[in-house]
Amino acid sequence: MTLNLIDKNVIQTCKFLLDALYLKHKQLYVDLFFYEKDVLFGDFSLEPLVLVGILQRQKNNKLRAQVQVFPMSGKFICTDFNYSLHRKRGKTFLTQKDGVWGILPEETPVMAKKVVVHRGDIVLDLATGSGMIAIFCADRAQRVIATDINPKAIHYARFNAILNGVDDKIDFRVGDLFSAVKGEKFDLIVWNGPTVAVPETSGKYPIYSDGGIDGISFTRRFVDSALDYLTPTGRLQWYDCAVGTEKMPVSMEYLQSQWNSKGLRVLYHSLTSDAVSLTKSFAIYEKYNLNQPSFKTPLSCQAVTKKEEEKWHVWLTSSGYTHFYYAFVEVRPATKFSLTFQFPDKDVRSDRYLTRFWLWMSYARIYRMLKWCEKL
Ligand SMILES: C[S@@+](CC[C@H](N)C(=O)[O-])C[C@H]1O[C@@H](n2cnc3c(N)ncnc32)[C@H](O)[C@@H]1O
User: Fold this and answer.
1) N or C, where is the chain less crowded by C-beta within 10 Å?
2) Cα–Cα distance between 99 and 287 in angstroms, integer?
3) Residues 164-200: pLDDT tens digits?
4) What values do phi and psi take at 187, rounded to 5?
5) Is the dihedral angle over the CA atoms 336, 225, 133, 350 positive or is it negative?
6) Does any ligand 1 atom lie closer than 6 A to the CB of residue 176?
7) Are the C-beta atoms of 296 and 93 separated by less than 8 Å?
8) Domain contains 238
């Protein structure tokens, strides 16, 4: 694996170096950790970053980032580059089956900052990926358990917890959904899991994104057993992404059918001012790819056939699914069941149809996004 866990002191020294780089050499920081440029740096020694595998020295003595390092509120989170300049075949940027999910500003940082942790909470961060949410929860929680099905993600998350000095508060475990916490109860369960709706293929999508044909294969399993893992006053929060009809995401339809007799208050905070049209999204995506002959950024790690895509579109249409939904969901104990939808006047998510990745953003936009994350 890229990141070396051997020496805790060296990892913690890296935190000081990243701080100094980010504060005093912001453009160089972005060149390294957002644009993957090879850079020469002589102001102070970055050797510890090389030792732990964050940077690699090239033959010309320049340094190259091996992971993306996302800075937020004095913390630094290492992830894989979802799309890497150094992982291309021809014009196609390749995703990795076991890649550790990168940070998109309007997703993980929002969860990490907005999650409501009470002092003394025992928190479960499911599908932790790089561990960012768990690491921010650790500031207030008594203890955090963080799990992921991908051993590489747990390795990165452990590294990130040491880097940010919270490794003594977080217990990292590999496992599918709740399998690593059988019999345990939590005051708060949070997650941002695999929720992208994708065509049915035999494993052509990375583990981090494959939410099944409607985006809720993980969510459905979560709803089926989540309440068994909650204390009587326990709360839930997650990033919900699913297809749906014009009126309702399929995730909430399922949740309602399973939990309507439970004492729970469910708040659905949409990130867009209305449901997002599937037809429009697909058309924009296609046009974007046609207008972008110089490179391709498929979500899948193996080519998805036209037949697989068409089959999916037919399934969506015949099931009456015409829209995409993005939201944060909060669940609290209550006397009876209620589900409330809240749509903001203005989109919170700026990428309504296409996810924009860092490599293709200007410096100004990256600085703006980082500032936006700071203020969350
Ligand atoms: C979109 S990524 C988000 C990661 C992290 N929560 C974040 O916000 O950056 C989804 C994560 O879900 C994990 N995952 C996928 N299927 C899972 C399962 N069945 N059980 C546990 N984790 C799973 C993936 O390995 C990946 O780390």
Assistant:
1) N
2) 27
3) 999 999 999 999 999 999 999 999 999 999 999 999 9
4) -80, -25
5) negative
6) yes
7) yes
8) yes
Residue with tokens 């747990």: 154
Q: How many CB atoms lie within 10 A of CB 18?
A: 22
154/151 Cα distance (integer angstroms): 5
**Mean pLDDT calculated for residue range 104-111:** 93
Q: How confident is the model at residue 282 (pLDDT cuts 50, 70, 90)?
A: confident
Tokens of 359: 């490599």
Number of structural domains in the chain: 1
- 3-state per-residue secondary structure call for 197-208: CCCCCCCCCCCC
Pseudo-torsion of CA 369, 101, 95, 180, nearest 10°? Answer: -170
Is the alpha carbon torsion for 292, 298, 301, 303 positive or negative? negative
Task: Quote the domain boundaries for residue 124.
Answer: 108-375
SS3 270: strand
Q: Which atom of ligand 1 is nearest to the CA of 129?
A: 27
Judge if the beta carbon of residue 369 lies within 6 A of ligand 1.
no
Residue 1: pLDDT band by 50, 70, 90 thresholds?
low
Give which of 360, 224, 239 is closest to 292, Cα–Cα.
360
Higher pLDDT, residue 140 or 280:
140
Whichever domain contains 200, its CATH number is 3.40.50.150
> Could you tell me if residue 284 is inside a domain?
yes
Q: Does residue 33 lie within any of the structural domains?
A: no
* Range from 29-33, 285-289, 326-330 carrying the lowest mean pLDDT: 285-289
Measured CA to CA in angstroms, residue 306 lies from 53, 123, 199, 201, 206 at distances of: 39, 43, 10, 11, 19
For ligand 1, whether the C-beta of 130 sits within 6 Å is yes
| Top mutation candidate among 218, 221, 239, 301 for ligand 1, by most atoms within 8 Å of CB | 218
Amino acid, res. 282: F
AA identity, residue 66? Q
Rounded to 5 degrees, φ, ψ at 227 are -65, -25
User: Is 101 domain-assigned?
Assistant: no
Q: Please choose from 104, 150, 158 the residue to mutate so as to test ligand 1's pocket, defined by most ligand atoms within 8 A of CB.
A: 150
**Nearest alpha carbon, ligand 1 atom 27:** 129
CA–centroid distance, 217 to ligand 1, in Å, is 12
**Single pTM value for the model:** 0.97
